[in-house]
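Colleagues,

Please find the record for the three-part complex below.
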Amino acid sequence: MSELLNELKEKVAGVLPKVTCFIGYGAGFDPLRVAPVFIRKTEDIDRLQWNRFCVHNLATYLPPHKYPPGFLFEADEKIGILLKGCDSRSVVQLLQEGIIDRRKLVIIGLPCWGMIDVTKLQGRIDINKVNRVELDEQTIMVFTNQAEVSADVSELLYDKCKACQHPNTLIYDEFMGEKRELTKDIEPFTQVSQLEQMGLSARAEFWDKQFARCIRCKACRNVCPLCYCQNQCLLDTRVPHWTKERVDAQSNRWFHLIRAFHLAGRCTDCGECARVCPMNIPINLLPMKMNQELFELFNWRAGTREGEKPPLMSFQLEEEKIS
Amino acid sequence: MPKSITQDKLADWLNRISQKYQLWASQEREGISLLSPYQPEAGFTLERIPQLSAKGVLFPQSECMLKYCYKKDPDNPEQTDLSLEGVEPHLKTVIWGIPPCDVAGINFFKHVFTGSGYHDPYFKARHSECLIVALACQQPETTCFCTAVGGSPVESPGADLLLTRIDHEYVVEAITPKGAELIDEDLFGMPEEKILKVVEQAKKSACKSLEAPFKLESLPVTADKMLKVFESPHWKEATRACISCGICTFICPTCYCFNMADEAQGMCGERLRCWDACMFPGYTLEASGHNPRLAKFQRYRNRLSHKFSYLITNNQVLGCTGCGRCIKECPAGIDMRRIIAHLLKEV
Amino acid sequence: MMTKDHKYRGPGGNPYLPRLATITKLYPETPNIISLHVALNDKKEMAGFSFEPGQVAQLSLFGAGESTFVINSAPKQKDYLQFSIMKAGEVTSAFHELSVGAQIGLRGPLGNCFPYHEFGKKNIILIAGGLGLAPLRPLMFHLLTERRKYADITLIYGARTPDDLCYLSDLDDWEDHGNVKIIRTIDREVPGWGYKVGFVPTIVSQVAPAPKNTVAVTCGPPIMIKFVLVELEKLGFEPHQIYTTLERRMKCGLGLCGRCNIGPKYVCIDGPVFSLAELKKLPNEM
């Protein structure tokens, strides 16, 4: 990890003359978290971090529709960015949708061994009181003033990391470290399949409970690199009046389902929507279900094959699996 | 004199309260602690600070302000009559087991919604019928900073009762006569003298464990300083990662911005008041297309300036209770403590 | 000036509740602006309704919502209140669909007013663009009821095209009977237009009112106000001699919902009328 961090800093030092800003990870508010950083000056390179907590999908800052020129970057700025394998899928998809300009991007790629979902420590230790962390490749030790706990890193990985099929950045200008080979076949969409085994009424009850908690903070939408409709979003318009003003399970369900449909074949399973949800709603499962459908129908996994056209952006007179 | 109650009797106490009042207590729901209407079968938790602040009890996320109905005159279809009906909440409520920073949030609401300006009748009606049972916070989280904004983790002015946990026992101090009525029960005993000493010590060490991320001078000086840094480039620098979501505002114990919007069902309907967030780009968007706070740094600047300057000027109160939720839950890791500390150093 | 003590109480003391009102007259002002006469259904309340020039009210069309409009009738008019509504968003568009007899809600008066009692013996120059004349209309009516108290009154009024000028008959009336000098302008030359051509700020610099013993009051689109203020300062007007009335997105009108602030001031209760001297003390967030 620390070798990779040193290499990253060297790479960024090399990239910085070519770009106006480099987006990477820096320190967060405690030893378990990091935060996106925007490096504009050589002296800030030392703020960069690379560790097992760098889960944020930095691609969300790229679509100019989300951040109009002048508000995050100027129109003519060339941006450098650190992308994990999963995050690079978002960039591939955004390129396929014609939303971002590859010529204005310098991508540093790397192998990723999975990120630690700190919420999986909750129950073993109060994750909001942690003041020290010791971490090696297999084990994490976490300390508070009152307690300490050690755990296997592999147990704590995000579900998306456990099911990772793209550990190496797919599209990059520079790659650092050695590419990671996947050793076992992984069944994708296992979370969706588990949910589908529940039966209709149990599933309805499951989702009603989830949607009842939603406070409509719009974080799931705003953090999503592919959700770039902004003020035209069905959550923000009064004319037409798609979503009811009252925040309740029924109207929340309406929003989340439509959003999932809008992401069909576009969602790259980065899981950010679920990560940021302050109410712990596994909201990524809805777009993931759409992804499963698209995979079965078109053998399509968004953002994995640069240069191809997404199936819902094209059509054929005869579709093999649709009659 | 304080009383005490053992852990195993808390459920009985809650059951009794819930017979007379609408009772809100924290419930463990899908990995988070949420203040919810108490249901005996769902249990309760005092283990963590509730995910959302207690403001939602007195200032619900969506509430009906009025109902209206247009009615056509059958004899004269050209003529449509309109009737209006105000909706006033009347509920005797107990909010149970909330941390002092959330009580401070309710005190704040009282200041702003029933202070020198217009009064908010909905909040006022709820607040006047509400009792608050606070729980002293003995092991503050890494994001806590209540002492830096004039609060305390272990004292709770504005509450009616204060609980302090010592092992399996809770020492209960009545702060108001109404609070004393809540513990006029056979479930409570008298704490031993040595327990009271332990309480004092626990309170002291809780305060000590909190570090101040910044030092505020008097409120007027703070207000003035924050106004002076309005043009600081740091606002833009520090908020680049912001994704303009509403998490920080919705989970905040003091953020009170709201929207008023009508929801029609045929000829009748209601006017709702719903939480809104000054961090949403559409918040200040005018019909003409003009938006005085189009950039996210402008919105963030307004949010913090409101809390640390404008509210002091207008209501003589600070708009932050130091609960740390906005730091803990920010998807982009924005830490307002660092930003305030940085800005205060600029003047 | 009106202070916060003049509060709208609302039915049952609830300031969020509107009073019921009826549209008694409705006519097009320009292709996208209508003017309404609105009378409170309670005749006693209507007769007792008093407001000062510059104050606003919230009009409700239930189902669509509520929006803020300046009361633009004469303060002494006790039969109705006049509002002019430009079609822009959901609420304003819904108002354009209404006809006479429609039932609506009204909360007001809200906000502060023009400090006309400080204008005595002074020259007054009013500068408006498009529907920006609406807040100045009740002020003009009021000034004309006590015309002798004031020195010269001038109105510079512009719009994009002749069709976009509001209150045309009032303009003639003020000119003919009110001893008011009126300078009309449109943005671009149109055949048959006998008045000035050019943007309002440019006309202000051409007319070049002398700042001595004069107050200027301006209202219009934000961009117009911005440049008019620049021109007035160039002419030597001091910030305390200049007043403007601001528009912001508002919801509650009570200083509670948080939306319309400029720094610590709320346009809904501390405004909408501000002197440039007051605005200069506020953070630059127009």
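The mean pLDDT of chain C is 94.

Comments are welcome before we finalize the supplementary table.
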